[in-house]
Amino acid sequence: MRAPRHADRQSQTRRDALDPAEPGGRPPGRQVRGAVSAPTPTLPGPGLASRRWRGAWVRLLVATVLGVAVDLISKAVAFASIAEQPVTIRRSDVLAAGADGVRRLVPPHEPVTVAPHLLEFRLVLNPGAVFGMGPGRRWFFVGFSIVAVAMGLWAFARWTRPRDRWAHVGLGLIFSGAIGNLYDRVRFGVVRDFLHPLPGVNLPFGWAWPSGAREVWPWVSNVADAALLAGIAILVVHLWRADAGRAARSAADAGSA
């Protein structure tokens, strides 16, 4: 009866020599059938973060450059074609005319109706800021535009994240509006306007603006002003959505506590 046991031990020894087992009885390099290895967490490296920020800068620059290009080209085309003769603006004439006489540098002309009661083109020289506010304070608005662009760059770098795409577009539109009108103030001493929305549409109940104008939108503006307002609206919506998201997460955390 002892011989078979000795033979069994010798067979087991030979199997162990040919296929040594790991501690615990599992052969090395083999996995237990059905076992799933836990995934190794990965963190975004500096290369991925750098690529994401490059995308953010691209969005900011594209929105800025496109906005400035459309603004300056549209102004040049408008002042060359809306009146019967091309209107040339010289900085020396603007400075000589002053804030009160600068509007007389544009000859009388008939507005060009794009869509009745929706939009018309009319040439106006604006010595002030958006909607004609603060006439005659050219250098104040030049300095204000430069400071606004600098603060916007700071907000882009410190306040936004690479995934905040709409915030980058909104800041780019604000930059384009500030730069487009800044160019006019430095180059011509005045801002060129030609967009008049809602012409002939008056306020209800006989109301009037403090200036006496009765139209719903009595101001003549340009593409830079429109880009500025659109950028501000985008940032407001972005902030509102960010605040709503933080409030929802706080409520969820409080409910799970």
For this entry, give a set of tags.
257 residues, 3 strands, 7% strand, mainly alpha, single chain, globular
Outline: globular
Count of DSSP E strands?
A: 3
Which H/E pattern describes the elements?
A: HHHEEHHEH
Evaluate the radius of gyration. 35 Å
Main beta-sheet strand count, sense and barrel state: 3 strands, antiparallel
The overall number of domains is: 1
Number of helices in the DSSP assignment: 6
Give helix % range. 55-70%
End-to-end Cα distance, whole Å, is: 69 Å
Low-confidence stretches: 20-25, 38-45
The proportion of strand residues reads 5-15%
User: Mean of the pLDDT scores?
Assistant: 80
The SS-based structural class is mainly alpha
| Major sheet strand order | 1-2-3
Please characterize this protein's 3D structure.
The protein is mainly alpha-helical and 257 residues long. It has one domain (57-203, 214-247). Helices cover 56% and strands 7% of the residues. The protein has a three-stranded antiparallel β-sheet. Strand 1 and strand 2 (119-126) form a beta hairpin. The protein is globular and about 70 Å long. The relative contact order is 0.12.
What would you say about this model in short?
The protein is mainly α and 257 residues long. It has six helices and three strands; from the N terminus they run H-H-H-E-E-H-H-E-H.
Secondary-structure topology with pairs:
Blueprint: H1 2-18, H2 46-81, H3 91-101, E1 112-115, E2 119-126, H4 138-158, H5 165-188, E3 191-197, H6 223-256
Antiparallel strand pairs: 1-2, 2-3
Helix pairs in contact: 2-5, 4-5, 5-6
